[in-house]
Design brief:
With about 325 residues, this protein is α+β, with helices and mostly antiparallel strands. It contains 6 helices and 19 strands. A 5-stranded antiparallel beta sheet has the order 2-1-5-8-7, with no helix packed on it. Helix 5 runs antiparallel to helix 6. The relative contact order is 0.10.
């Protein structure tokens, strides 16, 4: 692709894609920027005639112009006199607000699911160690999925790594817990599936098209229950609200598509007792529920040199200004 902005031009050549042989995913091009006025903002893709290029256009993107020149096809998006577009605090991602184009060649959802599913199979690693005591799993039966989830959540810290096998994760007690739990559930005879969901902040992914970050939330579905073991302290059956009702792609054991449905968040409470003073001491009790409680527990579990009170203020009591002095009781 080639891009032209107010201060210069640039061209980028893409190496072959491992996920999409013969294809490539291109960087997102933004036609506007906060604090910048654009006299001319242009995005051009030049490729062989007949080569299919899939594109996802953001809000306000200029109309695509196409021209065939000998053996090449030129695709151009051109915007002139583009005003500055400010991004307000807590607004959606820039990709959902600013005019932009995301494009790719040969990056279908089916090919992505097959490639990622093969990666999961390559990273198994447990079968060769079936006789090791650490690889033992509970006998299938009532609540076995919940027992496996509790065991992995208790014994393994979430530190995802793309090269780890499930055995590496179990041996080190840290790594990709989604991969480990998937393989433990399969070995226990449970109906386990490995999925990636599209969070609500991505808008609606183009049908059948795989673009970076559109499918970014790893989930498991074990015996019909959606699980999110990717983060520490997340209870059994709780998934991020951003994926409830959202499209998802299954990568293992077989490729497929679906929707994350039937999510009922169970009670999950975390209580914090504090004393706040701003001219006078006042006892305060904060109760966090759901994933807000999970986020605070994760923050408290991380090694940090910062004061405990500042962590609690950020997650539990953001309504207090900096003049208020907090003390965890």
């Amino acid at each position: 692709p080639a891009a032209a902005g107010p201060s210069g031009e640039g061209a980028v050549a893409r190496p072959p894609s491992e996920m999409f042989p013969g294809g490539a995913t291109l960087d997102t091009f933004f036609f506007a920027a906060p604090g910048e006025w654009m006299k001319r903002s242009e995005y051009v893709i030049v490729g062989p005639a007949g080569q299919a290029v899939a594109a996802d256009e953001g809000p306000g993107t200029p109309v695509l112009e196409r021209a065939d020149v000998e053996a090449l096809t030129i695709r151009r998006w051109l915007a002139r006199d583009v005003p500055s577009t400010p991004l307000e605090p807590w607004c959606p991602d820039a990709i959902d607000v600013l005019p932009n184009v995301r494009a790719c060649v040969g990056c279908t959802l089916e090919r992505a699911a097959a490639w990622m599913g093969e990666s999961v199979r390559r990273r198994d690693g447990l079968a060769a160690h079936a006789a090791e005591p650490a690889a033992e799993v509970p006998t299938p039966g009532e609540r076995t999925a919940e027992a496996l989830y509790a065991r992995v959540s208790k014994e393994v810290r979430s530190r995802p790594g793309g090269a780890d096998t499930a055995w590496d994760v179990q041996l080190r007690r840290e790594g990709d817990r989604v991969l480990l739990l998937y393989h433990l559930a399969r070995r226990a005879g449970l109906d386990a599936e490995f999925w990636y969901a599209s969070p609500i902040g991505r808008g609606t992914p183009p049908a059948g098209l795989w673009l970076p970050d559109d499918w970014s939330v790893p989930l498991l579905r074990i015996d019909g229950a959606w699980l999110y073991p990717a983060e520490d302290f997340v209870p059994f059956g709780v998934v991020p609200p951003s994926v409830d009702g959202r499209p998802a792609v299954r990568i293992a054991p077989e490729p497929g598509t679906g929707v994350v449905e039937g999510i009922d968040e169970p009670p999950n409470e975390f209580r914090v007792d504090l004393s706040a003073s701003a001219g006078g001491a006042v006892p305060v009790e904060a109760r966090l529920h759901g994933l807000a409680a999970v986020a605070l527990r994760q923050a408290l579990a991380l090694a940090s040199d910062g004061p405990l009170e500042e962590t609690v203020r950020l997650y539990a009591l953001p309504v207090f200004d900096d003049e208020a002095v907090l003390e965890v009781l």
